[in-house]
Write a structure and sequence with these properties.
Number of helices: 5
Largest sheet: 2 strands, antiparallel
Mean pLDDT: 91
Order of helices and strands: EEHHHHH
Structural class: mainly alpha
Distance between the termini: 53 Å
Strand order of the largest sheet: 1-2
């Protein structure tokens, strides 16, 4: 069996296909929005490569899996059943609350750094905020699932919490 080429040439003229099949310009807001969500997953993958806390690492992997569904929702027009639901938002809130309960209350601003994994989680947090802004710009022009926007908003909060959890190891050893 012959291996298929990675390149398809279908995008050579500046068009791409949405998950739901429609052809759109590569520079359209929808492509920009799901591309920025793809960047979140890449940044989370970088963070995961450096994370020392196993529970945080497993959580990040789960988030990367869920981001595939988020991208599918954003890269689709007129889908009957969105992937991201109220239950997904509640799950993120539960994860945030669970990790946050393990942390001391904040008494100062957090400066990114400390452990490599924590620093990468902060990059993922800021990438998530940018993706949220892209989704809100898209929403001004086209329909966007409100659940996706809320989920992305919660994800940035979770990245911040996970960064703090990961850095606790650094704080305990005096390397933060």
């Amino acid at each position: 069996m012959e291996k298929a080429a990675v390149y398809t040439r279908t995008g050579d003229k500046g068009m791409t296909s949405l998950y739901s099949g429609e052809r759109v310009p590569k520079q359209c807001l929808r492509v920009e929005a799901y591309g920025s969500i793809d960047a979140i997953s890449s940044n989370l993958g970088l963070a995961r490569a450096f994370l020392e806390n196993q529970e945080v690492r497993e959580t990040v992997y789960h988030l990367q899996e869920k981001l595939m569904q988020v991208m599918a929702d954003v890269a689709s027009l007129n889908i009957a059943t969105p992937y991201i639901t109220d239950e997904d938002v509640k799950e993120l809130e539960h994860i945030i609350d669970t990790f946050d309960a393990k942390l001391e209350p904040l008494t100062r601003f957090v400066i990114p750094g400390g452990k490599k994994g924590a620093a990468a989680l902060d990059v993922a947090r800021t990438t998530t905020r940018r993706a949220e802004r892209n989704l809100l710009r898209l929403q001004e022009e086209e329909p966007v699932s409100q659940k996706v926007i809320i989920w992305i908003n919660r994800l940035s909060d979770l990245c911040f919490i996970l960064e703090r959890v990961e850095n606790e190891v650094a704080a305990e050893t005096g390397t933060n």
